[in-house]
Amino acid sequence: MLPLVICAGPRALPTAAVASRYYAADGIPAIVIRPAAYADHDARFEPGTHCIDDEALAGVESVSAYLRGQRERLASFDRAPGWFLQQFIKLAAVAMLDTDYVFIADGDTVFSRRLLRDMLTQPAIMTTGEQYANYDRLLAALGLAPPERSCVANGNIFPRDPLLRRLATPEGFMSILEDHIFPSRGALDFSEYQLTGSLLQSHLAMRRIKMFRRFDLLIDNLDDIPAAFVERALRRYDAIAIEANHHRSLARQVAARIFYGIGRSW
Q1: Coil, strand, or helix at residue 111?
Q2: How large is the angle between the packed helices 81-97 and 60-69, nearest 10 degrees?
Q3: Hey, is 48 helix, strand or coil?
Q4: Which pLDDT belongs to residue 186?
Q5: Cα(88)–Cα(6) distance, rounded to whole angstroms?
Q6: Which of 125, 103, 118 is nearest to 204 (CA)?
Q7: Gyration radius (Cα) of the chain, Å
Q8: What proportion of the chain, given as a percentage, has pLDDT over 90?
């Protein structure tokens, strides 16, 4: 079985804790990478979960300091330092493990156990029905072929690959921003998931998943995720995302309930 790594920022920790317990009930262990300042949250994870400080990963402190210094440049095209830092952390985790393949998951997303067990035993590239032209333009600028379908599925398979290892260094990652993203003012943008899809599309099968991206709109208290509700939802969907930083409104909540009620993706 492949390693499973959950990368969680501060707002995603309640969801990551629910995910770790949900996976453990089916015998699927997880490694959790989270901010060192939030080690007190470890008690909420499944007992025995291997938790790693994100600052323990090579290059994280350097990239974090660099991104904080670029806050104004990033804000000019509606990006925040944490957006890119989480992507670097995932690449650093892949480099740290140095296995043929590893499954990396966003901390704010829970995947169904049936899907996850398939992915960990018979790796495939997960895809969705979305399109992200800015991610594909960056891949083309790097000389890579964009995947036919979006691989931005809040988690995916990552290989041992020289390009990923280079981007998992501060110099390699910063070059993506300085040479491509900043000059384009965001017309080119980076997605670690679209990148791995490009690298693996000729090696692994693709599997389209059914995801409910705004499951957070169905939850009243995002610091206390109802595990039973999550488990019921994952009988209908391959994945649910609880995106605590995204906009909430009554209209969006009503729409989410309608979409969930009829079993549609959101």
Answers
A1: strand
A2: 160
A3: coil
A4: 87
A5: 14
A6: 125
A7: 18
A8: 91
